[in-house]
């Protein structure tokens, strides 16, 4: 019973990002991820832009199932992170970005980041994805 209730509560906190309009949840607004794609080896800085981020407190960011490194809130409008190495299964198609707070809130930005395949370059149109 408790586990089922926890699952329902976590599911109620999920947010799906709309590709062109941004994503808003409880006073926090997610606008873009820049760059929206990266190399499979990871190690690249990514910035999530929006506002209300200071209200999130401590957080963890995951790209697909892997935790990002060096996650921090630079200011109320910017979350900064370093991408982890991609799993083979995550290369070449959009993956979800998960933002997990210390208070147990979970925010999902659907299809917000793409690891390029090893043979793909990064074009200008891949530099930013609006949520």
What's the total helix number? 1
Total number of strands: 11
Structurally, how many domains make up the residues? 1
**Low-confidence stretches at least 5 residues in length (pLDDT < 50)?**
1-21
Instruction: Write the CATH homologous superfamily.
Output: Immunoglobulins
Radius of gyration: 14 Å
Mean pLDDT reading: 79
Classified by CATH, the class is: Mainly Beta
Helix/strand structural class: mainly beta
Overall, the morphology is globular
Short descriptors:
131 residues, mainly beta, 5-stranded mixed β-sheet, 11 strands, disordered N terminus
What features would you describe in this structure?
This protein has 131 residues and is mostly beta strands. It has a single domain, classed as Immunoglobulins (Immunoglobulin-like, Sandwich). Helix content is 9%, strand content 44%. The strands form 2 sheets. Strands 1, 2, 4, 7, 8 and 11 form a 6-stranded antiparallel β-sheet that branches. A hairpin with a 2-residue loop joins strand 7 and strand 8.
Topology summary:
Layout: H1 2-13, E1 23-25, E2 28-34, E3 37-38, E4 45-51, E5 59-63, E6 66-67, E7 69-75, E8 78-82, E9 94-101, E10 106-115, E11 129-130
Parallel strand pairs: 3-10
Antiparallel strand pairs: 1-2, 2-4, 2-11, 4-8, 5-6, 5-9, 7-8, 9-10
Summarize the structure.
With 131 residues, the protein is mainly beta. Helices cover 9% and strands 44% of the residues.
């Amino acid at each position: 019973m408790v586990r089922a209730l926890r699952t329902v509560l976590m599911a109620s906190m999920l947010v799906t990002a709309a590709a062109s309009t941004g994503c808003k949840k409880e006073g926090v607004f997610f606008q873009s991820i820049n760059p929206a794609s990266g190399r499979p080896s990871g190690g690249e800085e990514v910035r999530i832009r929006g506002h209300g981020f200071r209200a999130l407190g401590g957080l963890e960011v995951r790209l697909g199932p892997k935790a990002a490194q060096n996650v921090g809130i630079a200011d109320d409008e910017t979350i900064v992170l370093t991408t982890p190495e991609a799993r083979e299964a995550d290369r070449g198609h959009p993956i979800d970005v998960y933002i997990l707070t210390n208070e147990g809130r979970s925010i999902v930005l659907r299809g917000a980041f793409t690891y390029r395949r090893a043979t793909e370059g990064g074009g200008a149109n891949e530099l930013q994805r609006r949520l």
